[in-house]
Amino acid sequence: MPHVTRTITRPSPSLIETLSALPPATLHEAQGRRNALDWRIKPIYSGMRFCGPALTARCTPGDNLMLQVAISLAEPGDVLVIDAGGSSEQGPFGEVLATACVARGIAGLVINSGVRDAAAIHKIAFPVFSTGLSVKGTVKETLGDVNLPVVVGGVSIAPGDVIAGDDDGVVVVPAADAARIVTLSREREDKEAAFMARLRCGENVLQVLGMDRVLKAKGCTWES
């Protein structure tokens, strides 16, 4: 039976702010290369970026009724995460709903379907990550769920999980694990900064990254 939950538990604003300063690729690596959404879910324009707690909804393909319910319940900083059935044939989100999102202070949209009105959405600078663009409209008929776990891009996402996206794609950080992932991500950023400092000084990339040892262990031979 369709179900709508009005209230969710969100991570603290300070934790969201900390995570937002870390690249999604780093958050993915810090989780053991897990929780990255399918590569097909990408920003509709380069330069779009978001980070915030997920507010989830499940819609029937070709129907955006529950997407509108989700918008009505979202709080400033939330990221709408919509399971629209995986069909890119329709555009259940466009300029009108993007305008509503901006007015409510919503941080972004992730949806496993097409969207439309791309130029208008770009103009108002609302971050939208989708599987593509489609001029086809949708009906508003079928009930679904809001604020229950969904699977989008092959990843299970619960309401309140932190979701971050940039030009590379989208990654999920489970709310219960977010503080630990921050620590691991910072350690990775520091390590990579040290690597790049050595590379800028002209050191050999294989030695800096330790690949010389990997190649030797795998039995790679060299010939002059």
UniProtKB/TrEMBL annotation:
Instruction: Tell me the enzyme class.
Output: lyase
Q: SUPFAM superfamilies from the xrefs? A: RraA-like
Q: Which UniProt keywords apply?
A: Lyase, Magnesium, Metal-binding, Methyltransferase, Transferase
Q: Which reaction does it catalyse?
A: 4-hydroxy-4-methyl-2-oxoglutarate = 2 pyruvate
Where do the annotations place substrate binding? 94-97, 116
A GO molecular function annotation here is: methyltransferase activity
Enumerate the residues binding Mg(2+). Answer: 117
InterPro entries in the cross-refs: RraA/RraA-like (IPR005493), RraA/RraA-like_sf (IPR036704)
For activity, the cofactor(s) needed are: Mg(2+)
Which family does the record assign?
Belongs to the LigK/PcmE family.
Q: How does it assemble?
A: Homohexamer.
Q: What is this protein called?
A: 4-hydroxy-4-methyl-2-oxoglutarate aldolase
- Protein source organism: Paraburkholderia fungorum
